[in-house]
């Protein structure tokens, strides 16, 4: 089985504290552990680049139109993120689990993946983005409960 960037990220999520893998000072130690666990070096490097990209995007100011405006996806986004995946993101917005800013981070991080995007991957990216947001513990808890304990989403 070919391991993907998201497989590496999911492994980090499930086996380490957030601070351990989002802090660059731990990357060398984690890289060695991930390689020992059988992940390819290229995918490990790409996973850390993905996390660095998330940290960089978090620092950028985002400007939005009027509240409750409709997000129009670009051609590239609609080609990569399927309708059911976009619907799931809208569903999370409507529930108040993610903000407009988080939605944009999620879309950005989905677009940064090289592998095919399906609903399961979207759920994981949402969890990873929420986990890395300050003051998003409650939203993270809601989404984690939905993903782990409620199975399928109704949207």
Automatic annotation (TrEMBL):
InterPro entries: Smg (IPR007456). It comes from the Bacteria. Belongs to the Smg family. PANTHER family: PROTEIN SMG (PTHR38692). This is Protein Smg homolog. It comes from Solimonas terrae. The gene is smg.
